[in-house]
Structures are given as C-alpha cells and as structure tokens.
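Worked Example 4.2. Read the sequence first, then its structure tokens.
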Amino acid sequence: MFNERKSIENFNAYQCIRSYLVDLSMQELIELAKDYGIEVGKLSSFE
C-alpha cells in the first residue's frame, strides 16, 4: 500500500544526505569513503 507520508519522509532524508555530501570537500569525501571501507584508488593522491 502506498504511504505518502513515509515517501515524503524518505525524500526529505535523501535531500538532507545529498545536501550534506555535496557540501563536502574532495578530501572529506575521501576520508568518509575510507571510514566505510571504500578503496579510493588514484584519488588518494589528494591526501
């Protein structure tokens, strides 16, 4: 069953997370990726 309120809450959460990530610098994104075990490859040259 479609739950409009839940969909709006999910969309708002998505927008909040997206806004946060867009505001991060490349170095901050690299550090965040590493925190979650994501290998950054060549991008690690920004360190």
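Now turn to a second chain, presented in exactly the same format:
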Amino acid sequence: MKKNILFAALLFGALLSCKKKSFTEEPIPPTLPPIELGYSKLTTEQNKQALEQNGLDFIKKINTLPEEKFISLIERLGDLDLEALSNTIVGRELESIARSAKSKQVAGIFSAVTTNDVKNTTDLSNFYGIYNWNSKNENWDKTASTSKFEVHYPSTVASKTNDALLTVSYTASKAKLTVDEEEYELPAATNITLTVGEKEELKLTGVYEYKTDATPTKVDVKLNLGTFQLVVLANNDSKILATSVALTKDKSPIFSATTNVNLNEKYPALEDLEQIDEIVKSANMTFEVMNIKITGQANIKAIQDEYEANKGLSQKDRRTKEIATLNKNTSLFAVYKDKNEVFAKNEFVRIESTRTDWNYNPISNRYEPTTYAYFELEPRLVFNDESKMTLKTFFGSGFTRFVDEFEIFTNKF
C-alpha cells in the first residue's frame, strides 16, 4: 500500500484526524457524528438534489474560465513565436496555465504553478531584455538588459499598437535540480504580470524554498486570472507539513483543500513507507466544493495496530479485515457548509478487480498470460435511506484529476 496509505488517509480525512498527543497513549474513541454537527432534516432525495445543484453551481462558475482575457493574450505570444515562452520555466508555466484554463482544467493550472518542468529549459537570465514587436518586419526588436524581461506586443491580430505588456522579475534559487545528470535552475521568487492598457489580466507571485537536494520546503503562490484567484501554500519545517489550495471567483470560494500533518522527527523516504505512523504523528484534511465539505476523524492507533496484526493474511482477507477496522474506528461525513449540517456518512467497502500480466515462460519459450484478482478498499457516502455514492463519483472526473495532482504536490515534501 505504501504511499497510497498515507495519501488516502490525508485525502479522506477520516483516517488521520487524531485527538491524542502520541501513538503511545490510549486512543480516544471518535465521536460519531461530531457533536457540534446535527443531521440535515432534508429527505434523501432532497439531499441528492442539493448535491446535484452544488455540482451545477460549480460548473456554472468554472464555465466562465475560458472567457478570461489572459488566455488569448498568452496564445498571442505563442503566435508571435517568442522563444522564451517555450524554453524557460516561466514561459512553460504561462503556456500550461492558458492551455488548462481554456479547457476548464483547474488541475492543470494547479499543476502548472507547483511543478518545476525544468528538463531541456534555459535559464530566464539568458533571455533578459526588452522586446518590442515590429509589425512591419514581423519580428522582435530587442533592447539589451541584464536585469529585465519585458515584452510589448499587440494583444490581438487587429491591434495596431503594442498594447499588451508582459513583465517578469525572477530570482533564481541557489538550489539546483538535477535531471539526467544535468543541473537546472529553480525559482526562488517570481513576479509575473500581464496587462492590456491599464488593466491587469494575469498576475503571478511565487516564493519558493528548498533543501540542498532541491526538495521543496516552502511554496507561496498567488495567481490572479482575471476574475479568478488561485492560492497555493505549503510549508515543511520537518515537524509539521501544512499544505493548502483555494480557488475563488470574484472573491467567492469555489473549492479548497487543506492538510496539516504532524511529522515524526525521523521517518523513511516515501518510497520505503510501510506504515502511516512511520511518518505521521497526527493529521487532518478537509476538501470543500462550493457548499459541500468532507470532514471526519479516526482512531489511528487502533487502525494501525490491526493493520499490523493482519499482515500475514492473504490480500483478500487482509482487505476484509482492514475494511471492518476502518468502519469501526472512523467517522467521515459530508456537510453543508452554510447550515453546518451532515447529509451523508461514510463507509468503506471492498472492491474486487482482475489484472492480467504477461510473463515469459522459458519452457514454452513465449510470453503467457496470468490473470489474478486483487482487492482494494473504496470509501462511499451513505444517505439516510442507505443509498450510496462513491467519493470518486462525488468529486467527479475533474476533481479526480485534481486529487491526483494534489497528491503529487504533497508527496514532494
């Protein structure tokens, strides 16, 4: 299970929200449900309608993202063949933001501001200068500079003047990222603005810190995209890992995700992780979409003790035991934020799947298929009439990808 144990625990909240000081103390049983929350008086059908409306409200907000002006401004730079756009970290970041926004892929925007796509890039300092588009020659006129990267260009094909302006200030980190034995520059601070006339259409500010091996320890990113704003924060001081991401439109929340993890003083590399308590003392997470919030708590020690006791079982029997343990020792709820009311609880179920591997048989001198079953656990929301909905269905395909990107981001620390 390894890292999937850790992130599933963080993601679904119920597995890591501890209320004890250490794993050596007696566990405090979870409250089912949290005492400060009451249950919604809506019927199951009304709850499902409210959930559907919540999704429609989200779609309505996100559907306006491709209409934001910054997308066409970045695409226009691409049409004018600005070399720095595709050959620097900053340029690739802008291209990825525009591409993702045009297709309403919030996960792609998040990935763009948290992933250092450095391979085969050139340091931005190599492109420093003040660039002006020459419409007569259809080329760039460059004024040399040792500290500025500034681009003046026509915002549309029909523009008669260089009315769009891209400015970038950038400080490189002393830490270097090594990829395929090549060292690449990492940003310590970035400040990007994209304007037309006097109107700012995009602004990105970022502050980054790293260990000497280029592992990030701090990220502070604020990205304004017209009427949208994305804020990404992360900090790991070796004792606490805190991460958060929030998206708003016209200052109105659309979604957010937060984690706060108390780390052990010494812990193994993520790829060597076998048990949650090797790396985590306690943690909690929330995930909110419009008016819906997922929240929960768990008895971590009881869960981990039973996981240990079940190690020698077959995968099928082990999953069966794990699910029984989780259902006994966790509480997870879907909540209306505006009313602070629970409308569904959680349960874990076992899912059986099959997989076929092709292995070489030296006797027959050919590859032959072997099909075997494997078993996974799946969290589901349960309504008051016992009808169920998987969390995957709840978040929808767009959020499934976002969850994957958030996992990648969190695991970097």
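Notes for the reader: Confidence is low (pLDDT under 50) at residues 1-35, 270-274. The two ends are 19 Å apart (CA to CA).
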